[in-house]
């Protein structure tokens, strides 16, 4: 059931990345955020109920709420026209929690590929914090491209592999995943900062 939700997280991240790039209106993106946010809250609730006190199963389900709350928050904020700072600061919490879940994946669950995926999500939500929480507008396009480019490799692809029995988590696979993530983030930087007005770079330098 986790993987069903992960499949649709790839879709909503893609749409939200396009929203940051100005290709999808905020109100248009709201509906999918509400759908996936609801799914990512109902799914872990069902999994926790079915766990019958199994701490490992409960731990595995607990991280899904981070994303469910994010997407519900985004959907409601977009429809209601709320200021984005609350989403940004919540994203900082998500980023910190994602680092903890990455450590658990590496050293407790022996799933290094998902450890890399959790670190990728920590980067994404850290960027959301910078853009939405701190108002670093010069990072908006970079964040949008990073979200678009990481949405499918960190969500849709592993979900399909797991649903079809093809998911394998080995050290070599994790190294490949990490290298791919680094390359995609580098590509996002090229696409995100290319052609930005000089004044934006000047403001970024002044704020550093």
UniProtKB/TrEMBL annotation:
Question: Where does the secretion signal sit in this chain?
Answer: none
GO CC annotation: plasma membrane
Q: How does it sit in the membrane?
A: Multi-pass membrane protein
* CDD domains noted in UniProt: UreI_AmiS_like_2
* Localisation per UniProt entry: Cell membrane
Task: State which residue ranges cross the membrane.
Answer: 6-24, 31-51, 57-80, 87-107, 113-135, 147-167, 173-193
Query: Do the record's keywords include Transmembrane?
Result: yes
- Source domain of life: Bacteria
InterPro entries, A to Z: AmiSUreI_transpt, AmiSUreI_transpt_sf
This protein's UniProt keywords: Cell membrane, Membrane, Transmembrane, Transmembrane helix, Transport
Family membership, please give it. Answer: Belongs to the AmiS/UreI family.
Q: What is this protein called?
A: AmiS/UreI family transporter
**What species was this sequence derived from?**
Amycolatopsis echigonensis
Query: What does the organism's lineage look like at the top?
Result: Bacteria, Bacillati, Actinomycetota, Actinomycetes, Pseudonocardiales
């Amino acid at each position: 059931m986790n993987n069903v939700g992960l499949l649709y997280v790839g879709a909503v991240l893609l749409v939200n990345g396009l929203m940051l790039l100005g290709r999808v209106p905020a109100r248009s993106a709201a509906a999918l955020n509400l759908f996936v946010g609801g799914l990512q809250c109902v799914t872990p609730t069902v999994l926790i109920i079915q766990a019958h006190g199994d701490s490992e199963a409960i731990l595995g389900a607990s991280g899904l709420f981070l994303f469910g709350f994010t997407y519900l928050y985004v959907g409601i904020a977009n429809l209601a026209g709320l200021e984005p700072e609350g989403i940004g600061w919540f994203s900082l919490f998500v980023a910190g929690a994602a680092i903890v879940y990455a450590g658990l994946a590496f050293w407790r669950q022996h799933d290094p590929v998902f450890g890399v995926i959790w670190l990728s999500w920590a980067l994404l939500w850290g960027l959301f914090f910078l853009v939405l929480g701190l108002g670093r507008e010069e990072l908006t396009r970079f964040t949008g491209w990073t979200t678009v480019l990481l949405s499918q490799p960190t969500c849709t692809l592993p979900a399909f592999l797991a649903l079809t029995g093809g998911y394998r988590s080995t050290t070599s696979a994790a190294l490949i995943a990490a290298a791919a993530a680094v390359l995609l983030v580098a590509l996002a930087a090229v696409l995100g900062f290319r052609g930005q007005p000089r004044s934006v770079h000047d403001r970024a330098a002044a704020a550093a």
